[in-house]
Amino acid sequence: MITRLKTELYSKMILEFPPVRERMSCRFIGVMPDEFVAVRVPLVPGIKERLQEGAIVDFRYLHEGNLMGFRTEVLYYQATPYSIVFVRYPDAIEKHELRKEKRVRCRLRTTVTKKELSWKGVTVDISGSGCHFLVDASAQEAPAVRVGDFVSGIFHTICAMELSFKAKVVSAGQEDSRFSLGLVFEGNEEFPPGEFFDSLKETAELLGD
């Protein structure tokens, strides 16, 4: 079990009403650790009655290729000026891995490009299917990309070797003072190369990461 909620601001969530499991899409808009989570929900008929104080609700969301979820209770719902529900901060968060490959944590200087625009940042974890790329929000503007866009990129390794790749954007948002992109590698060739990926895994294991 995980006890800290980590997800990108404005990321999509699924709100469920047990026991009937009726679902609706919503957006994560804020959190105060150990106190509450704020979520913007659709203003639909009957929503106020379903989100009465003390009502039990479930949330599901994706984070770094994993399906996350938690059960909590409603603290307060407001319909105006925006439809927002405040729920109790969860005691525990369930995590279900969707990726076949384990992610390896790393710190790789990376450049991501879309057409004539490029952004320099750091890849903080990588697997055989994709990676997690961060850009310093204080130094650069938000990458002008959307989920579903295709980009190209370069990993700049310690040995001055450059590895080029093509990828599809599967998530885009902001984490604290950093812009975040979730990328899935495109192409039929093995990427990252086995020798390079094995080296990253060995380093992570030696560091206990």
Give a written overview of the molecule.
This protein is mainly beta. It has two domains: 12-97, Pnp Oxidase, Chain A (Roll); 104-206, predicted glycosyltransferase like domains (Thrombin, subunit H, Beta Barrel), CATH 2.40.10. Helix content is 8%, strand content 52%. The strands form two sheets. Strands 1-2-3-6-5-4 form a six-stranded antiparallel β-barrel. A six-stranded antiparallel beta barrel has the order 8-9-10-13-12-11. The longest helix is centred in the last third of the chain and has 13 residues, at 194-206. It is elongated, with a radius of gyration of 19 Å. The chain starts with 11 loop residues before the first strand and ends with a helix.
Draw up the topology in text:
Blueprint: E1 12-17, E2 22-32, E3 36-40, H1 47-50, E4 56-63, E5 66-78, E6 84-88, E7 94-97, E8 104-114, E9 117-126, E10 130-136, E11 150-156, E12 162-175, E13 178-185, H2 194-206
Poorly predicted regions are: none
Cα(first) to Cα(last) distance is 18 Å
CATH superfamily of the largest domain: predicted glycosyltransferase like domains
Name the structural class.
mainly beta
Q: What is the average per-residue confidence, as pLDDT, rounded to a whole number?
A: 84
Strand content: over 45%
**Count of domains:** 2
How does the major sheet shape up?
A: 6 strands, antiparallel, barrel
Categorize the overall geometry. elongated
- Helix percentage: under 10%
What is the CA-atom radius of gyration, in angstroms? 19 Å
Number of strands: 13
Series of H and E elements: EEEHEEEEEEEEEEH
Helix tally?
2
What name does the CATH topology of the largest domain carry?
Answer: Thrombin, subunit H
CATH architecture of the largest domain: Beta Barrel
CATH class of the largest domain: Mainly Beta
Strand order within the widest beta sheet: 1-2-3-6-5-4
